[in-house]
Structure formats: C-alpha cells, structure tokens
Amino acid sequence: MVVRYSRADHVAFLTLDNAPTNVIDHAWLDAFEAALDSAERDDRVKVLVVRSAQQRFFCGGADVNILHRSSADENLRFVRRVQETFDRLESAAMLCVAVIEGHATGGGYELALACDIRMAAAGTYRIGLPEAVLGLLPAGGGTQRLQRLVGTGRALSLMCTGKLVGPAEATRLGLVDLLAESSDIATELDTLTRPLATIPAEALAAIKRCVIGGQGQALAAGLEIEAREIYALFHSDETRSRISAFVSQGGAAGKAGK
Q: Of 7, 40, 102, 210, whose CB is crowded by the most CB atoms within 10 A?
C-alpha cells in the first residue's frame, strides 16, 4: 500500500510509502483518499499526521512521467484530482500536521501546505516549489496557499525562481512552522498532539473552520463566521457540561459571577 493508515489513541497517521520518492500518481491518490476516508469515519480521531516511511523523501511531488505521456486535457484532470484531494485534507475536521523529514518538493510541499501545521526535522534535504523550472506552475494549490502563508512578495520570489531551501531556511521564511532535531521529532510531535486529547473534537473543528474560512475575508465576514461557529458550540451538550463543571469547581468565570 503506497499510503498506509494507522491510529494511536486520538492521532491518525497517513504514512506515505511509495518508494523511493513517494511520487504522486493515480494509485497514490486512490490510497491517500482511502486513508482519509478511514480517518474521517473514526470519531476518535482529532489529529491527522501525514508522514513518510522513506528516509530521504517526504514527497517528491507529481509523477512527471504522467505529465510527459498524457494530453493537456488528461493532465488537467489529474491536476484537478490532486487539488480536490488536498482540499479534502485542508477542510478535514481534524487538525492536520505534516511531519517533514526528507525532500518536500513540488506537489510534495503542496501536500504539506494543505496541512494546518508543518513540522520539519533538521537536515540537508530541500523544500520548495520548483515547477517554474519545467515551464509549469504549482497547481496543487501552491500558488494560493503559499502566498497566504508567507505573503505575496515572498511567495512570488520562491515560485518564480523555483528556489529550494533547507529546513532551517524554510522555517525562517515561514514555509515551515516548527523545526526540531531529527532525534527529537517524535517527542515534539507528541508534545504538540497529546494535549489535544482533552479538547472536544467539535471545538477543534470549529476553530479550524474559522481560521480557514476567514482567510482572505474582511474582518466583518470573519467575525460572522466566529459568531456562527460559537453559536453552534453554545448548543453543544459537551460544551455546556464543561462550562458547568468549570463554574461548579470555582473557575474564574464562576467566581466573577458570584
């Protein structure tokens, strides 16, 4: 299986295992979508981790051989399928974390961009979107997500030159959120994900919808999304139970109301 699914407590793992470079092709997309289905069907899952079983590559991007032997219309259908798969990841109710320990280039970095948090291990591998070198553009969401992450000027500079950078430079530029020593990456991932076990899944999903839905919106529109989401949480049995327990235990809000 080129993408393997597993779960440990509240954390699901999508492990890329399409040796040697985890290239994205139709079989990869089939397996990735099936793994996403498994995660979304399991109401115990609060965090989805995308990682690689290959030592040198997180994901090397789309299979250029497919692009070479296919017509423009066939290639467009392939690109749209990649977009739809990555959109599913971005809109998933779970918090999605990319753990990068090897080359993440082209569609491989676009996969990481579709995750909510990007964690990288220190090393000598490369990260970036080099499609322009082939006369192409990052069409798996790269032109849209990278500018939202690092700003228009920096995104254009990186994409138009096809520049690849190491994980430390990627962190400095904002392409990666968290950088850890290779030996510490599992500990850092656990530090990030363990506290989420105690947070209601519906609150995590609502926060993510607010952040994703508010991107590119005027402040008023973003505040309306917040109001809609918190109104739904006010009706949640889990939320009401937690607020009641907090007040009964002498929480700050409870004391202020006495």
A: 102
pLDDT in tens, 52-96: 999 999 999 999 999 999 999 999 999 999 999 999 999 999 999
Q: Is 131 one of the annotated active-site residues of the chain?
A: yes
- Tokens 């090397």, residue? 60
List, as one string, the DSSP characters of 213-228.
Answer: HHTTS-HHHHHHHHHH
Cis bond upstream, residue 20 (ω within 30) = yes
Q: What is the pLDDT of residues 64-73, one digit of tens each?
A: 999 999 999 9
Per-residue confidence at 252, pLDDT binned at 50, 70, 90?
Answer: low
Which residue out of 110, 181, 226, 229 is catalytically annotated?
A: 110
Query: Residue 117 pLDDT > 70, yes or no?
Result: yes
Active site (annotated) includes residue 238: no
CA distances to 29, 90, 167 from 120, rounded to whole Å, are 23, 19, 6
Instruction: Give dist(CA 123, CA 146) in Å, integer.
Output: 22
Spatial separation of the C-alpha atoms in residues 133 and 159, rounded to whole Å: 9
Candidates 3.90.226.10, 3.30.1330.10, 3.40.50.1240, 3.40.50.720; CATH matching 3-196 = 3.90.226.10
How many separate helices (H) and strands (E) can be counted in the chain?
Answer: 12, 10
